[in-house]
Specification:
With 412 residues, the chain is mainly alpha-helical. 46% of the residues lie in helices and 5% in strands. The chain has a four-stranded antiparallel β-sheet with strand order 3-4-7-8. Strands 1-2 form a two-stranded antiparallel ribbon. The chain has a two-stranded antiparallel sheet with strand order 5-6.
Length: 412
């Protein structure tokens, strides 16, 4: 057995709670939504049954309105282990925010590893309700794009793309950050940003988790993942013998793709849009590369030119930088303000393959695997040196390493 394979498998075994996998035993001791989707994609190579349980556990916490909460709290973990914990959200065992909808793609991947029609039939209506919530209840701008109401919903918490819309939010205080007990402050969001996150979350909670507040943003990464998820849901519908539903999902994906290009594309890149002001944020972040997931993307050649240019240097560094390498506020070690993350690299690689960039996809695959192994499956890495940052033995880094190892380099 490949040594890296065995080490990655050991990480997932060590993070397994019996019905779900924590991203990190210390820093993230609960079940996170998009983490579990990525983890299931890797787990399917070890145990399709465990991968199914991972996703079924997450969807057992789905809200009546269709949303899949971004955290499902583990009742055996002390409430003070993570802030904001279950008492803050006042939503029983979950948070009230969401994360990018990678889940349909994960469900399809798990089924492909070990076909299980019952599993698909169980989760298909839940996935359909989840997507409908995003497409309908979150269309704040009326342009067919889902809006996020908190930076945490993007999965890219302190991305520079959120700086302008966040500047309107008055930070709160009087809370204790638990993350700094397990991570270097230089690697984490600032206290001021965290104060704004808590303020936004409390305001959203106090509105009954409905409507839109001061932070309302159309994120290209979130919406590209949603469009890709609709394509995955179409494939699931095909397996279930639902051709009309499959056609509807493909039409939905096409509408989101069209809205992305008409609303968020400018000068060779996809930018986030502040719905409150109508302005594009102007920050070149990795989220703007994720529309490469869409196989019919008309602007893919121009986007690939930006990806391989000086801003991201795709194929010439380590992974995919989360922020523009040439920007004055690029920070190689601070969370989503510069470091490379395994899940973004995995997603961008999928996009490269869909647009015929096989050589570049192969180089990215090899780098992601080597970097993960060298850094003990670090949460994120310096895109220039490959040095590890954040938590080690990180769930999705290990899981996606397994998935990449399961796909021979010659295929890439």
């Amino acid at each position: 057995m490949d040594v890296t394979w065995g080490r990655a498998a050991a990480v997932l075994d060590g993070n397994w709670l019996g019905s779900s996998t924590v991203p990190s035993r210390s820093l993230y001791p609960h079940q996170w939504s998009w983490d579990s989707a990525f983890i299931a994609i890797g787990l399917r190579h070890l145990s399709p049954a465990r991968a199914r349980v991972e996703l079924l556990t997450l969807f057992s916490a789905q809200w009546r309105d269709g949303r899949v909460p971004h955290i499902l709290f583990n009742p055996d973990t002390p409430p003070e282990a993570y802030f904001p914990g279950p008492d803050f959200w006042r939503a029983r065992r979950t948070s009230g925010l969401v994360q990018p909808p990678v889940h349909a793609r994960a469900v399809l991947a798990v089924h492909e590893a070990e076909p299980d029609r019952t599993f698909l039939a169980t989760l298909y209506p839940k996935l359909r309700a989840w997507h409908e919530y995003l497409r309908v209840s979150r269309d704040a701008g009326g342009r067919g794009l889902a809006a996020i109401v908190h930076p945490w919903e993007s999965g890219m918490d302190n991305s520079p793309a959120w700086d302008d819309p966040l500047s309107r939010v008055t930070p709160t205080s009087g809370f204790v950050r638990r993350d700094l007990q397990h991570g270097d402050a230089a690697d984490r969001p600032s206290d001021e940003d965290y104060g704004r996150y808590v303020r936004l979350a409390a305001d959203y909670r106090d509105r009954g988790y409905a409507g839109f507040g001061e932070f309302v943003v159309e994120d290209p990464g979130f919406n590209a993942i949603l469009a890709d998820a609709e394509l995955a849901l179409a494939e699931i519908a095909d397996v279930l013998g639902l051709p009309a539903a499959a056609a509807t999902h493909r039409e939905s994906a096409a509408r989101v793709e069209k809205a992305l290009q008409e609303t968020l594309w400018d000068n060779g890149f996809f930018f986030a849009r502040d719905v409150r002001t109508g302005s594009l944020t102007g920050a070149h972040t990795c989220a703007g590369l994720l529309p490469l997931l869409l196989p019919d993307l008309a602007v893919a050649p121009a986007l690939l030119a930006t990806a391989t240019g000086p801003r991201f240097r795709l194929g010439r560094g380590h992974g995919v930088p989360s922020h523009d390498l040439t920007a004055p506020d690029f920070d190689a070690g601070r969370y989503w303000r510069g470091p490379s993350w395994a899940n973004v690299g995995w997603l961008v690689r999928q996009g490269l393959l869909r647009h015929g960039e096989h050589a570049l996809a192969s180089r990215l695959r090899d780098d992601l695997v080597a970097t993960a192994a060298r850094t003990d499956f670090a949460e994120y890495v310096d895109p220039l040196t490959g040095a590890g940052h954040g938590a080690r033995s990180f769930g999705w880094t290990a899981a996606l390493t397994l998935d990449l190892l399961a796909q021979p380099a010659a295929v890439a």
